Amino acid sequence: MSMPLYSHPHLELREHIEQVEQGLDALQQWHSKPVRDSVAGWLPKLARFHDLGKASAAFQTYIQDPLHFEGDPREKAHTPLSLLLTLCLSEAERWEALEALALAAVVRGHHGSLPTFPERKIGAVSCSDHDLDNFAGGETARVLKKLLLTLNVPELEKETGLPLTELDWGSIRQEPGRFVQRMRRYLDDALIAALQKLGEGEAVLFRLKTQLLFSLLLEADKALLAVAEPKNYLKREARRWEPQWVERCLGKPQDTLTNRLRRRMREEAVGTMEHHSGDRIFSLTAPTGCGKTLLAATWALSMQEQARKMGENPPKIIVVLPLLSVIDQTVKEYAKLLSAGGIERDGHWLLTSHSLADRRYAEGLEAGEERFFVDTWRSELIITTYDQFLMSLLEPKARYQMRFHHLCDALIVMDEVQSLPCQLWQPLDRVLKGLVSLGSTKLLLMSATLPAFVSGQTPLVTDYASYFSAFSRYELQLHLEEVLSLDVFCDQMQEELPGWLGEGKRVLITLNTRASARKVWQALCEGWGEAEEETPLFFISADVTPKDRLATVERIKEGKPCIVVSTQSIEAGVDIDMDMVIRDFAPLDSLIQVAGRCNREGLKPRGVVRVVDIVNENDKRYSSMIYDPVHLQVTRELLLGLETVVEEDVLPYTEHYFLELSKRKNSGGEHLQRFLCWQEGVPVRELLRGKEKAQFTFLVLEQDPSLQGEMDAARRVADRWERREAWRALASRIAMISINVLARPGFHPRQIADEYVNDLWLLRSGYYSRRCGLTVEGETRIF
C-alpha cells in the first residue's frame, strides 16, 4: 500500500490542495464579477498544478523532517518540477497557448518571483536565473532528469485528480534529457511565441491577468496555514465607510475666501461624480490648500456607495502618497472620519503600509495571523507610499505581488503625482489603463501641478484654472540674475533675522542639501541668543530622525512664530502655513509646491516666496547636485527675465513646464517594453530615486531605550523565517530612529558608532541632538 504524499509536515498534498481551493473561493468574494470571470477557468487548474513537484522522492524525504534533511537542497526544490509537469500536461491536453504560459509562469514563481522571459528572445544571449526556461540546462536540468525517475506518478494522480498516468512515462524515463528539451521547445516555440504576437494593449492585459492569477495563488497558498480560525478569513465582512462622515468633519468652517473656494470646488466635484459615475480615471488639479484630502475621501466613499446601490461589492480604497510625513497627516484625517462615525479604528477599517507602519492589525489575533492580514492588505482602506503601491503593481517579487489582486477592484487615490519621475510616465499610462479595464478599479490623480501622464482623465473640476486665478496668497520673487555663495546667503539670513523675530514672523528657509541647510541653521543659531524661547528655530533634514521630524512638523503646525530651516522634504503636502518662504532654486513643480506653504489659508496680505540661486565654495549650484538637469533647464527658460510671478499666473507656467518635459525627457518607453516582454527591468525603487548609493544606517537608541533588547532577542531566534518575522515586527521602530548617511572618503562609522548587525550601527551617546540632528565631536556637520 503506497503512502500518501505530503505537502507540509502535518498536511497531505490532497488536503493542501483543498485548502488552496477554499482560499481561492474566499478571495473571489472580495472581487467584482469581471475579475472573477477573467480567471474563473484557470483557478481550479492552478490549485492542483502548483505543487506537483512535491511528489518527488527527495521532497517527500525532506518534508518528513525538514530540519535534518541531508540531501542535495536542489533536489527538494519543487517548483522546477512543477513547471515541467505543467508544461507536459498543457501540451498533452492542447491548452490555449497563453493560458498555458500564464499557469506555467505562476507555478514556477510562486515561491519567489514571477519569472522573466529570457533576453535571447530579443536577440541577446544572456540567461537570467529568473528566466522561465532556465530549467533546460545546467544543474537544474540534471536535477530534473533525476527527479523524473523518482516521481510517484500513481499517487500524485490520486492526490490531484490529474490524468498523469496517461502520459508516456516509459519514454520520459527512458530519455529524460530529451523530454526536458522537448518541453523547452514547446515553451519557446508555442507559448512565448504567442506572447510575442500580442499588440501592446493585449500584452498589458495578459501580463496583468497573469499577475492577478499569481497574486490570488500566493495569498490562497498561505491563507489557511496562517490563520488560526479559518472562519475569520473565509468570509468577508465589509466595514462600511459612510460619505456623510466627511460632511461631519467639515462642519461649518469660517467664512473666508479660501473656504468659499473650497466649498465651490467640492460642489462642482460632487456634480461631476454624479454625472460621470461610470468613468474610470479622474483627475483633480487644484491649488494647494484646497482640501484635496477630504475631497478625495468624498470621491472614494461616493464611488463605494454607488457600487453598493448597483449590488456590487464595494471596492476597497487605496490612498497613495510620496512622503511619510504626508502619510502621517493623511492617516490622521481618515482617523477623524472614523471618529465622526463613532468607529474605533483597527486594521479592518484602516491600514497603513510603509516602512514606519507599526504592523498592528486588531486585538485578539495571533501574531502570525496579524502579520498575514497586514501583509495582504486585508482592510477596507489602505494608506501607502508610491514605493509600496508601484512594487505591488510592477515588481515581480512574490512578497509584493501577493497584494496585486487588491488593485484590480479598488478606488485608488494617487496624490502628489507630480513627484513621479518622467521615466515612469509611459509605463504607468499603459499599465493603469489596463488595470482599470481588468476589473472595477477607478483612479483619482491629484496634484497642484498635474502632469498629464495618464490620458483620458475626467477632471472632477473642469474649470480648475479659475481656482488658481482666484487665489492671491503669494508671489514668487525671482532672484536668479546672479548666484549667491552660501556664505553670502548665510550673512543675508543673519541680517534679516532680527526683523523676523521682532515682527513675530513664521519663516521657512528650504535648501537643496543637508550640508547647505545645516550651515544656514548654524548661521542663524549664532544670532539667536534668548529669542528661541519666544520664536523657536527648527531644523528639518535627513540628519534628524523621522521621529523627531514628525514631532517638529506638529510643533510648526501649531501656528506660533518660528523660523524653520529645512531640506526639500517639507514641501509636498505638509500642511503648514508660513508668512514667508525662501527657497534655493529648484524645478518649477518643487517651487510651486513649497510656495503652497506660504500664506496657505489666505488670511494675510500676499506673502513672499523668494527664490535664490546658491553655489558652494567651488561655484557649483546646490540645485545641480540634487535635481535632473533637464528639469532645471526648462525651469530657467520659463522664468528667464521675470522678476515676479503671482499665484494667479502660476498655472500656465506649470502646464508649459510639463509639456516641455514630455518632449525632452525619456518617458520610460524601454521600461514599458521590458514589462510587456516579461524581461528583467530596473527595480521600482531605482526608477523612483535613482541607484542606491552605499550608506550607513545609524540608530539613535536613546529615542527607544527598549529596542536594543528586542533586537537582541530577534537575533537569537533560531528558525530563519521566524527570525525574519521578528525583525519585520521591529522594522517600523528601527526606521523611526534611524539616520542614513552616504559613505564618503575619510569617514568610517566606527568613529561615532558601534557595529551591530544587518548593516546597522548604534550611534554613541553625544553624537545626536534633537535640536540639530547628527553631530560629531561637538560640531554639527554632514558627511
**By helix and strand content, what is the structural category?**
alpha/beta
**Percentage of residues in DSSP E strands:** 5-15%
- CATH architecture field of the largest domain: Orthogonal Bundle
Overall form: globular
CATH topology name of the largest domain, in short, is Hypothetical protein af1432
Average predicted confidence as pLDDT: 89
Rg (C-alpha, Å) = 29 Å
Count structural domains.
4
The top level CATH class name of the largest domain? Mainly Alpha
Count of separate DSSP helical elements: 34
Largest sheet: 7 strands, parallel
Q: Give the distance, in angstroms, between the N- and C-terminal Cα atoms.
A: 70 Å
Please list the strands of the largest sheet in the order they lie side by side. Answer: 5-6-4-7-8-3-9
Outline the low-pLDDT stretches: 121-127, 777-783
Number of strands: 23
Helix fraction, binned, reads: 40-55%
Describe the structure.
It is a single chain. By secondary structure, the protein is an alpha/beta fold. The chain folds into four domains: about 5-235, Hypothetical protein af1432 (Orthogonal Bundle), CATH 1.10.3210.30; about 280-455, P-loop containing nucleotide triphosphate hydrolases (Rossmann fold), CATH 3.40.50.300; about 465-665, 3-Layer(aba) Sandwich (Rossmann fold), CATH 3.40.50.300; about 695-780, no CATH class. α6 packs across α11 (about 175-195). It is globular.
